[in-house]
Amino acid sequence: MVIQIVLIAAVVLIALVMGRGQGARGQALRRLGLAAFAVLAVASILRPDMLTEVAQLVNVGRGTDLLLYVLIVVFLTYVSTRYVRDQRAWRQITALARRVALIEAPPPRPEPSVLDASASGDV
Amino acid sequence: MDRAEFDDLWVVVPAYNEAQVIGQTLTDLSACFPHVCVVDDASNDGSGQIAETFFDQGVRLVTHPINMGQGAALQTGFEYVLSDPLMARAVTFDADGQHLAADAVRLARRLGDGFDVVLGSRFLGQAPDMGRLKRVVLKTAVAYTNVSARVRLTDTHNGLRAMNRRAVAAMKLTQPGMAHATEIVERLRTERLGYTEEGVEIHYSEYSRSKGQPLLNAVNILVDLLMR
Ligand SMILES: Nc1nc2c(ncn2[C@@H]2O[C@H](COP(=O)(O)OP(=O)(O)OP(=O)(O)O)[C@@H](O)[C@H]2O)c(=O)[nH]1
Ligand SMILES: [Mg+2]
Fold first, then answer.
1. Do A98 and B37 touch (CB under 8 A)?
2. Considering only CA atoms, which residue is closest to atom 6 of ligand 1?
């Protein structure tokens, strides 16, 4: 009983924290997925046998095995989307840092015409 | 030496923590070239300050706020020198003291024969102190790059190159790290740049060996190239 309460609390908490994101479409999809996950998670906590029944439906021995397989797939998906995102973020950072570097750099050549103009203006 | 011959030329020097040698490199370069752009890739050993002292010899320092890799440093240098309307030619030159300024002069003059790009090759020239394993890895990289970029070169990962303005503008490097060498070679074909190779000397001192690319990094470069 205690473990069930703890797990349900954890699932609700994760759903709440992850549900807050940005980007309208992605956010909506993420929230739907999260809702489904939460429902399934709570169901499997209340009725642990359910996982095993689903596992046997797809010819996997035990529910825990099924969970492991799903977890591996989810993890690999996460790694690859993470990689794509990191690459994009890195490209943006590079562009930004380059702009900063170029803005702060001295002009490539002393500009004699400009210097002459200001000098003669003083006189 | 009369530097006026190269008033339309910029040397681009990517530098990351090269304080021990960058002073010598810039002294040698400034003797031949009136315009040198050092791109300090967020060094934390004072390389930038050393470069700054060469201001009066024509060295201009561009400083990355964060370390972004040699490819990113080169691209920043390219964009800087493109901002000089009088720039007609550029030479890339590593800060780590492995190249000879005299070789850079030769490559730059070779552009006059009508090439858009002149690539330095240590296998046409000399690299007397290169380790045997390094040689094998580099030759493998050359073979791979020749096939993937459909060119025929003897050295694809040499930091010393000369190019004209059109080639500099065409580079647009996106690979921040070491994979940029392959990118440059790919541009030769995709941008229809006329190119040739010229033998150069590469010196592997105790310093550059300890600081240079660990051979295992070849694995990372390959993954960068395959995953883009
Ligand atoms: N390693 C490294 N070099 C950088 C970076 N940014 C700029 N550089 C400069 O790029 C040049 C070449 O770097 P090296 O690590 O010597 O690479 P390499 O000459 O191709 O490899 P070696 O043959 O082992 O010397 C040097 O002038 C570096 O200072 C960076 O983030 N990492
Ligand atoms: Mg080197």
1. no
2. B70
Q: Is there an atom of ligand 1 within 6 Å of B71 CB?
A: no
pLDDT, tens digit (0-9, with 9 covering 90-100), for B60-113: 999 999 999 999 999 999 999 999 999 999 999 999 999 999 999 999 999 999
Pairing of strands B117-126, B195-201: parallel
Global pTM?
0.83
Length of chain A in terms of residues written: 123
Residues of A in contact with B176 (CB under 8 A): 90, 94
Task: Kindly list the distances between the CA atom of residue B167 and the CA atoms of B89, B90, B104, B117, B203, in Å, as whole numbers in the listed order.
Answer: 9, 9, 17, 7, 27
More confident residue, B32 or B141: B32
Q: How far apart are CA B103 and CA B208, in angstroms?
A: 18
Residue scoring higher pLDDT (B106 or A109): B106
Atom nearest to B13 CA in ligand 1: 27
Q: Where are the domains of chain B?
A: 3-227
Q: B3-227: which CATH architecture?
A: Alpha-Beta Complex (3.90)
Q: Is A93 at the interface with chain B, CB within 8 A? A: yes
Stretch (H or E) spanning B115 = none
Are residues B64 and A102, on separate chains, in Cβ contact within 8 Å?
A: no
Compute the mean pLDDT over every residue in chain B, rounded to the nearest whole number: 93
| Cβ atoms B117, B162 nearer than 8 A | yes
Helix (H) or strand (E) holding B4: none
Contact B63 A105 (CB under 8 A): yes
Report the relative pairing of strands B117-126 and B161-164 from DSSP bridges. Answer: antiparallel
Structure tokens at B140: 């493998």
Q: What percent of chain A has pLDDT over 90?
A: 16
ipTM, two decimals, is 0.88
